[in-house]
Specification:
There is one protein chain. By secondary structure, the protein is mainly alpha-helical. The chain is built from 4 helices and no strands. Helix 1 packs antiparallel against helix 2 and helix 3 runs antiparallel to helix 4.
Length: 132
């Protein structure tokens, strides 16, 4: 009877571990989707308030994504070089969001949208860095 309980507990623990990794990977994808949607909202913004809100949402999603591991690195240790690259690329994205936000806060919406195009460039560079 004890062996049966032990096996059941072991299977439960393994299931929770696997589902935790899956949820974590899905969270990164969810955050990346939120960044993409927020960028579209930013790009379509007609007012400083709308642009500011979109950038705030984008930044929140980027910070949350940075705290998670992408699915390809779900089992990687925290000192994994590829994970460091991922975090560095997210840091660059956050810095660009902040830089764009300063322009929005200064009321320079057109200039902010021009600067904001770098967000897409960083996304593409980040994806390329993760593929190598």
């Amino acid at each position: 009877m004890k062996t049966k309980n032990f096996v059941s507990v072991g299977i439960l623990c393994l299931s929770l571990t696997v589902s935790s990794v899956t949820v974590q990977a899905n969270e990164v994808n969810m955050y990346m989707g939120a960044i993409t949607m927020s960028y579209a909202r930013f790009n379509a913004a007609q007012t400083v308030a709308d642009a500011r809100k979109a950038l705030a949402n984008m930044r929140t999603a980027a910070v949350a994504a940075r705290s998670q591991k992408p699915s390809a690195l779900a089992k990687a240790p925290t000192n994994n070089p590829k994970l460091k690259v991922y975090q560095s690329e997210i840091d660059r994205l956050i810095a660009e969001i902040d830089k764009t936000g300063k322009l929005v806060n200064a009321g320079k919406l057109a200039e902010a949208k021009t600067e904001g195009r770098k967000i897409l460039q960083l996304r593409d560079e980040g994806h390329a860095a993760m593929k190598h």
